[in-house]
Automatic annotation (TrEMBL):
Cofactor dependence: heme
Reaction catalysis annotation: an organic molecule + reduced [NADPH--hemoprotein reductase] + O2 = an alcohol + oxidized [NADPH--hemoprotein reductase] + H2O + H(+)
Cellular component terms per the entry's GO annotation: endoplasmic reticulum membrane
Membrane topology: Peripheral membrane protein
Pfam family, one: p450
Entry's EC annotation: 1.14.14.1
PANTHER family the record matches: CYTOCHROME P450 1A (PTHR24289:SF21), STEROID 17-ALPHA-HYDROXYLASE/17,20 LYASE (PTHR24289)
Location in or out of the cell: Endoplasmic reticulum membrane; Microsome membrane
The protein, known as: Cytochrome P450 1A
Organism annotation: Mola mola (Ocean sunfish)
Residues bound to heme: C432
MF term (GO), any: iron ion binding
Length: 490
């Protein structure tokens, strides 16, 4: 700014000069105000030099820029995003030290402007509260999820209600892929997978499912990438506060998705309140209403939460439950297409260990080690939630997609020690509470799809596996083909 003004100084008026000097003073004072002083005896963390107001530029793939910086500055360094100082931790030991050994200190979330817009600022996942109320809500959410996912199914062939929902949605998904294939010759995998996955969590939270063409459901699940971009710290006004006052199409879209989502959930919660019967708890929403009635809250923390806060937990579960799992499954289909020989091996494993006459089930897991290894490798290689991944030095030949790295030497089992290095669900006090459900969903949906369908590219359309940055990184929307497996192939 000063460089641009200096050559002109000879021809400017006194009032213009005064204006320039005043502006420079204000800028200086603002910079001084936001500068964080280091307490005596402590050192400033290493890190790249930041530009005033803008901070460090991370480009469109922040996880790659940060990985490059960690090579230069080490496992603990500081950057500046806009006007906010940010400490970056990398390397599994450092992350473990922070999130497990010093778990309490690191269990909060930053108080970002965009996070306050999610779930009216009362989100279990995004709000900066990390003690009393957050702990009580997390406990409640966890127990509601656990009791509902282990509940018995409505028919004897299903061991639990989660299995029943996934099996039914898996069959609907196959029919849907076949219908669209017949009509159009190809399909957009995410568009259909997201509805099936949303239906599983809808079944558990609200006891209902939606049609693949339901406009209301599609109006927010099918554009969840817009939400993910902002929630993945991609919104500049979170870091440069003055930008909040400027019109922003990103924020407009973000607010609109949040609104549609809240209205959708609120309507169902109101219907549940109207028909609630203590002796017939139908789903997770009823469980939460039941808790409001009983006030059976965290006995240890003496925390009292409003009814509204308790019922809002269902927003968090539904929101966290569909975007993550559908992103994982959509990537899985991309990898199956990208590595046809692995797809064939997975099909053979299913054919040999489960057969083709019955639908796979959750108890088939120990019989299908290659599928388990494929899922672990998918989590590792796609790293679609990039800020929880372990340092790549942990893996031999990290850029290859190689599921066998997660198998024992004889190939008959999953190598548990290697599997436990996979930290896509986070760790410590904020670790994902939906991990068991998510792992089961990805496993069973995939087993059902691979048993029946062979996924292929569309001729002439090369596969683009470049991830698009967001809280959950998605592949670009694309078209694929699927063919029903015939008995002849067996
Ligand atoms: C493959 C699927 C999934 C992945 C990769 C995943 C990953 C994660 C990660 C990385 C976190 C943040 C951990 C941290 O901050 O350190 C998280 C939090 C969370 N997840 Fe998941 N998740 C998945 C599926 C699910 C499902 C199915 C549900 C619920 C049904 C769920 C519910 C939550 C909730 C409520 C939180 C917030 C916890 C808190 O802040 O206390 N997730 N998840």
């Amino acid at each position: 700014m000063a460089l641009m003004i200096l050559p002109l100084i000879g021809s400017v008026s006194v009032s213009e000069s005064l204006f320039v000097v005043t502006t420079l003073c204000v800028v200086y004072l603002v910079l001084k105000f936001f500068r964080t002083d280091i307490p005596v005896g402590l050192r400033r963390l290493p890190g790249p030099k930041a530009l005033p107001f803008i901070g460090n530029l991370l480009g469109s793939s922040p996880y790659l820029s940060l990985t490059a910086m960690s090579k230069r500055y080490g496992d603990v360094f500081q950057i500046q995003i806009g006007m906010r100082p940010v400490v970056v931790l990398s390397g599994s030991e450092t992350v473990r030290q922070a999130l497990i050994k010093q778990g309490h200190e690191f269990s909060s979330r930053p108080d970002l402007y965009s996070f306050r817009m999610i779930n009216d600022g009362k989100s279990l996942s995004f709000s900066s509260d990390h003690v009393g109320i957050w702990r009580a809500r997390r406990k409640l959410a966890y127990s509601a999820l656990r009791s509902f996912s282990t509940l018995e199914g409505t028919a004897p062939e299903y061991t639990c209600v989660l299995e029943e929902h996934i099996c039914k949605e898996g069959e609907y998904l196959i029919n849907q892929f076949n219908t669209v294939m017949k009509a159009n010759g190809s399909f957009d995998p995410f568009r259909y997978i997201v509805v099936s996955v949303a239906n599983v969590i809808c079944g558990m939270c609200f006891g209902r499912r939606y049609d693949h063409n339901d406009e209301e459901l599609l109006s927010f699940v099918n554009i969840s990438d817009e939400f993910s971009k902002v929630a993945g710290s991609g919104y500049l006004a979170d870091f440069i506060p003055i930008l909040r006052f400027l019109p922003s199409t990103t924020m407009k879209k973000f607010l609109s998705i949040n609104d549609r989502f809240n209205i959708f959930v609120q309507k169902i919660v109101s219907e549940h309140y109207a028909t609630y019967n203590k002796d017939n708890i139908r789903d997770i929403t009823d469980t939460l209403i039941d808790h409001c009635e009983d006030r059976k809250l965290d006995e240890n923390s003496n925390v009292q939460m409003s009814d509204e806060r308790i019922v809002r937990i269902v927003n968090d579960l539904f929101g966290a439950g569909f975007d993550t799992v559908s992103t994982a499954l959509s990537w899985s289909v991309m990898y199956l297409v990208a590595y046809p020989e692995i797809q064939e091996r997975l099909y053979q494993e299913l054919k040999d260990k489960v057969g083709l006459d019955r639908t796979p089930c959750l108890s088939d897991k120990p019989r299908l080690p290659l599928l388990e290894a494929f899922i672990l490798e998918l989590f590792r290689h796609s790293s679609f939630m990039p800020f929880t991944i372990p340092h790549c030095e942990l893996w031999k030949d990290p850029s290859s997609f190689y599921p066998d790295r997660f198998l024992t030497a004889d190939g008959n089992d999953v190598n548990k020690i290697e599997g436990e290095k996979m930290m896509i669900f986070g760790m410590g006090k904020r670790r994902c509470i939906g991990e068991v459900i998510a792992r089961n969903e990805v496993f069973l949906f995939l087993a059902i799809l691979i048993q029946k369908l062979n996924f292929l590219t569309v001729p002439g359309e090369p596969l683009d596996m470049t991830p698009e940055y967001g809280l959950t990184m998605k592949h670009k929307r694309c078209h694929l083909r699927a063919k029903m497996r015939t008995r002849k192939e067996q």
